[in-house]
């Protein structure tokens, strides 16, 4: 590879595929307590919503985003995919989350221990594999809990990690190291995945700092309940360009920079087939809406605003859950 680029601080966002948009909103806002920071469209398919669920201020490392593609077929996790997405929650909060999942009918499994941390596995309504990981939240943590539905002592505080399933992990592990992740060790991973061993890599940032890698040749397919891509923070244009050059020098084929309105992006498939994105931290979700009004309106970036009437006609009516809504 080219000279090492400035290291990524960690995950920027994770984008997934859903089916029914209202069900997706209800689960991620009300059940899990994330803020709908941006209600927009898929810029490559404007007939589909793009929802952005974040902490209270839309900080980098907290955005779980979805393309709800209506009647899309069910996906299946396999090699070459982000198999699980994990969020941080405060220490001691998993009892609350299990009780909440019981109340809301959420499918969840037994707690497991990984690398000295307690993990609760569950699924969203489309079968997306998700995890909550208990961690100590420092006083200077950059995430701001959104507390409309969940109290601060249990609220989700951004990403913990993503888990990649790969047929041949070695080339991807080398790429992760070039991106600034350091190997933290390997441990047995029985029960919840087809792989025998889980290797953890850590970035230097405080949020979304881990990537776990598991070997498997199990086949998968894209569809509802699957991760579409994972984006890593390259905070500035200069850092993104350096990372793009490093990926290109490794024999990968990154795109040119694409303006996504709230960040600027570069995409490429890494060696195992997972779609990686490099995303800047600017201009941010509050660049076109006041912070206290995020998610209130359908935002159509750039050229799409001139097509508002046409686009709105093609989108399903949705209602954002409110804690103070009348029963």
Q: What does the model show?
A:
The protein is α+β, with helices and mostly antiparallel strands and 327 residues long. The protein has a single domain, classed as Roll (2,3-Dihydroxybiphenyl 1,2-Dioxygenase, domain 1). It contains five helices and 16 strands. The strands form two sheets. The chain has an eight-stranded mixed sheet with strand order 2-3-4-1-13-16-15-14. The chain starts with 10 loop residues before the first strand and ends in a 13-residue tail after the last helix.
How is the topology of this model organized?
Elements: E1 11-18, H1 21-31, E2 35-42, E3 45-54, E4 63-68, E5 81-90, H2 94-104, E6 108-114, E7 117-123, E8 129-135, E9 159-166, H3 169-178, E10 182-188, E11 197-202, E12 210-215, E13 227-233, H4 237-249, E14 258-259, E15 264-269, E16 275-279, H5 308-314
Parallel strand pairs: 1-4, 5-8, 9-12, 13-16
Antiparallel strand pairs: 1-13, 2-3, 3-4, 5-9, 6-7, 7-8, 10-11, 11-12, 14-15, 15-16
């Amino acid at each position: 590879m080219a000279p090492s680029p400035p290291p990524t601080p960690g995950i920027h966002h994770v984008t997934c595929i859903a089916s029914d948009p209202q069900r997706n909103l209800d689960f991620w806002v009300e059940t899990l307590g994330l803020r709908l920071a941006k209600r927009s469209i898929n810029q490559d398919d404007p007939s589909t919503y793009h929802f952005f669920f974040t902490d209270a201020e839309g900080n980098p490392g907290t955005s779980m985003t979805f393309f709800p593609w209506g009647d899309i077929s069910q996906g299946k996790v396999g090699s070459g995919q982000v198999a699980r997405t994990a969020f941080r929650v405060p220490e001691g909060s998993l009892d609350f989350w299990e009780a909440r999942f019981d109340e809301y009918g959420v499918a969840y499994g037994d707690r497991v221990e990984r690398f000295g941390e307690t993990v609760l596995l569950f699924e969203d309504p489309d079968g997306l594999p998700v995890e909550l990981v208990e961690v100590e939240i420092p006083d200077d943590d950059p995430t701001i809990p959104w507390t409309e539905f969940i109290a601060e002592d249990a609220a989700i505080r951004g990403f913990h990690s993503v888990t990649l399933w790969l047929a041949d992990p070695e080339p991807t592990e080398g790429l992760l190291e070039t991106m600034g992740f350091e190997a933290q060790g390997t441990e047995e991973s029985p029960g919840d995945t087809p792989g025998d061993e889980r290797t953890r890599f850590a970035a230097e940032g405080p949020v979304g700092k881990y990537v776990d890698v598991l070997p498997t040749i199990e086949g998968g397919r894209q569809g509802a309940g699957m991760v579409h891509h994972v984006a890593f923070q390259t905070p500035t244009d200069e850092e993104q360009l350096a990372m793009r050059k490093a990926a290109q020098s490794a024999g990968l084929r990154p795109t040119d920079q694409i303006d996504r309105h709230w960040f600027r992006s570069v995409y490429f498939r890494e060696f195992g087939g997972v779609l990686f994105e490099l995303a800047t931290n600017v201009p941010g979700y509050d660049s076109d809406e006041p912070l206290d009004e995020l998610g209130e309106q359908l935002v159509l970036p750039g050229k799409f605003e001139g097509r508002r009437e046409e686009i709105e006609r093609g989108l399903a009516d949705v209602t954002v859950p409110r804690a103070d809504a009348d029963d």
